[in-house]
Design a protein that fits this description.
By secondary structure, the protein is mostly helical. It has helices spanning 17-20, 24-39, 64-77, 86-89, 93-107. The chain has two domains: 1-57, no CATH class; 64-107, no CATH class. The chain is elongated and about 55 Å long.
Length: 111
């Protein structure tokens, strides 16, 4: 729709999980001023949807580099075995798509 944008806002996370448990209207009331200040959003939303996923986005913990090395070692030990996805290359959707493309290129080299 002309003159409109689609935004996704995430609240809570591992540092402030209690924020995500607020009632829907309180969440929207907290987010809208920030969107105005940070992004210059004007006007009321045309469409809003709230989804609560308490365990939606995995977190990489301190020492995760060791787990990445275990994955790389498994690939070195078993030629033709490939590991990919959010566990290795990022948790966001764009990161997962890019990781899939990178993995496909490794699995099926260009002729």
């Amino acid at each position: 729709m002309a003159g409109h944008v689609a935004l996704t806002v995430m609240i809570g996370g591992t540092r402030q999980p209690e924020l995500a448990r607020r009632p829907t209207e309180k969440l929207f009331a907290a987010v809208e001023p920030d969107l105005r200040t940070l992004l210059g959003v004007t006007g009321a939303p045309v469409f809003r949807r709230h989804t609560f996923w308490p365990h939606a986005i995995p977190q990489y913990n301190l020492g995760y580099e060791q787990e990445l090395e275990v994955m790389a070692a498994a690939e070195r030990s078993y030629p033709g075995f490939f590991l990919g996805g959010q566990a290795r290359d990022g948790i966001s959707l764009p990161a997962c798509v890019a990781a899939g493309e990178k993995l496909a290129a490794r699995a099926v080299p260009a002729a």
